[in-house]
Amino acid sequence: MDDLKQKYLSRIADAADEAALEDIRLAAVGKKGEVALKMRELGKMSPEERQTAGPALNALKDEINSALAAKKEALMDAALDERLRGEWLDVTLPGRARPMGTIHPISQVTEEVTAIFADMGFSVAEGPQIDTDWYNFDALNIPGHHPARAEMDTFYMHRAEGDDRPPHVLRTHTSPVQIRHMEKHGAPCRIIAPGRVYRADYDQTHTPMFNQVEGLAIDRDISMANLKWVLEEFFAAFFEVDGIKTRFRASHFPFTEPSAEVDIQCSWVDGQLKIGEGDGWLEVLGSGMVHPHVLRSGGVDPEQWQGFAFGMGIDRIAMLKYGIPDLRAFFDSDLRWLRHYGFASLDVPTLHGGLSR
Ligand code: PHE
Questions:
Q1: 123 and 177 part of one domain
Q2: Same domain as 160, residue 219
Q3: Which residues form the signal peptide (predicted)?
Q4: What is the pLDDT of residues 117-163, one digit of tens each?
């Protein structure tokens, strides 16, 4: 019995893994193991012999079983240690740099414009990019024969023959949002409407799709003076130049009366454009007092209400502010250009936090 004990305890101590341990268990204390065979021999013994051999065999069996259990636990601990060593990870290492997207200058400038006008009490309105020619033209006092329709290089939606729904166009300006907003919310109102507009035109300063922001303020006694103040406040905040000079030039739009185009002060030094200094002028927007016909189209009574409107090219002012020479680059999706002119995604422009980088 002592031999058996020595043999199995040392084999258990040497077992390399759980499979080897299981083999040892079967050979020692399994149903056909050596200890079981010895137990069978008990029947052939005299009662006296049996009285010492029986308990001794049971003790041997217990001892081998507990040696097996202890070894099994030790093997499992070792396996876990091994795994922890293999999967070790230094969580204090710095993160790997990943290519990160940037905010497109048009989105950035739209946010800047929105922040400035929001501070002056304007909320943001939107309208569809595909609109009826009534909203895009007629409601804005541009009847069918009006030359402005031809000047706008309008994209008309295709209509199958016999389809007599009203003609739809890709909106040529954001002005139809004036009508939609008045129809829905009436007067008074103070909104801006940024968004995409479309005209069939393509060169260094024109793309078939570009961005405008419309402004509309209606109340009982709004005047050109309010328009001038709002725009001057806007330009000073946007270009971050105090006391920037503006020039209002008499102009004509069918939907405003009187109408003015607005220029801002600039200079060209060594081919570099500087905003807010010098004696040059750059045209940046069209504006005026909303025409009574337009108020009526929107369901607003021109005897009670009056207001101003303006339309400004977002791409244009983005080019001026950030020194971008070619409008077409905005829409080329050139990654090198985007990395150069793009904005960090967490740089949300606010008046208190700073509008630009
Ligand atoms: N809609 C005009 C354009 O696209 C701009 C404008 C808007 C002018 C509002 C006056 C008032 O050119």
A1: yes
A2: yes
A3: none
A4: 999 999 999 999 999 999 999 999 998 888 878 767 899 998 888 88
30 domain residue, yes or no: yes
Mutate to test the pocket of ligand 1, among 253, 261, 290 (most ligand atoms within 8 A of CB): 253
Give the mutation target among 135, 255, 262 for probing the ligand 1 site: most ligand atoms within 8 A of CB. Answer: 255
The range of the structural domain enclosing residue 66 comes to 2-86
Both 50 and 176 in one domain: the answer is: no
Mark whether 256 and 293 lie in a shared domain: yes
Model pLDDT, residue 150: 73
Q: What are the pocket residues of ligand 1 if the criterion is a CB atom closer than 6 Å to any ligand atom? A: 173, 175, 253, 256, 286-288, 309-311
pLDDT digits (tens, 9 = 90+) for 37-75: 888 888 888 888 888 888 998 999 999 999 999 999 999
DSSP string covering 105-154: HHHHHHHHHHHHHHHTTPEE----SEEEHHHHTGGGT--TT-HHHHHTTP
15 domain residue, yes or no: yes
Distance CA 254, CA 291 (A): 8
Whole-number average pLDDT of the chain: 91
Distance 200 CA to ligand 1 centre (A): 17
Q: Provide the 10 A C-beta neighbour count for residue 247.
A: 13
Domain count, the chain: 2
Does the annotation place 257 within a ligand binding site?
yes
CATH of the domain at 315: 3.30.930.10
